[in-house]
Write a structure and sequence with these properties.
The protein has about 170 residues and is an alpha/beta fold. Helix 4 (about 105-115) crosses helix 5. The two termini are about 30 Å apart. It has helices at about 55-60, 65-70, 75-90, 105-115, 115-120, 140-150, 160-165; strands spanning about 5-15, 25-35, 40-45, 75, 95-100, 135-140.
Length: about 170
């Protein structure tokens, strides 16, 4: 039996490091309940907004191919609405906790490129720019850094290292 939807485990692919200049090229979310059971997945390629770039190195890392994205992706406005609708289905009447590896990075891109969904479900107040972009998020990278410091673990802060500590592999 599924528990209460609680977490939106999130990953983005982007056209670079700067949300105001680089495109959001993919949004992936796994909704997980309070017992960490997977409830549903949302994964869509996003056709870059006009005026936003995809740097060659970013495309190399995340596999972005303009022709492929134009065939299989959704435009950024549709992506914002689809993302909003997906989160509303699960978190209409309850809080949503965003989870990501390097959460502030994903949060900043989502806040800039999908403002309606982000503001409504991921506890961001766009009227208060002083508030950190990762408020309301659980960052697995920060957790890994804290764990490494406590345990004197010499590994890196990569998601694959965190998964390995928990007995999983990441492809």
């Amino acid at each position: 039996m599924a528990g209460i939807p609680t977490y939106a485990v999130t990953d983005t692919e982007t056209g670079g490091l700067h949300p105001r200049a680089n495109a959001l090229t993919q949004i992936s979310i796994i909704v997980v309940d309070d017992q960490f059971n997977e409830l549903e997945t949302f994964a869509h390629r996003v056709i870059p907004r006009p005026g936003y770039t995809v740097e060659p190195r970013a495309a190399e890392i995340n596999g972005y191919n303009e022709a492929e994205w134009l065939q299989t992706g959704m435009d950024w406005q549709h992506a914002d609405r689809a993302y909003d609708s997906f989160l509303q289905q699960w978190f209409r009447d309850r809080p949503c906790i965003g989870v990501a590896h390097n959460a502030s990075f994903d949060a900043k891109f989502l806040q800039h490129h999908t403002p309606s969904a982000y503001a409504r479900y991921l506890q961001w107040d766009p009227t208060n720019p002083e508030r950190a972009a990762d408020d309301g998020w659980y960052c697995t990278m920060k957790a890994m850094k804290e764990w490494r410091a406590r345990c004197k673990y010499a590994g890196a802060n990569k998601l694959s290292d965190l998964a390995g500590v928990a007995g999983y592999t990441v492809e």
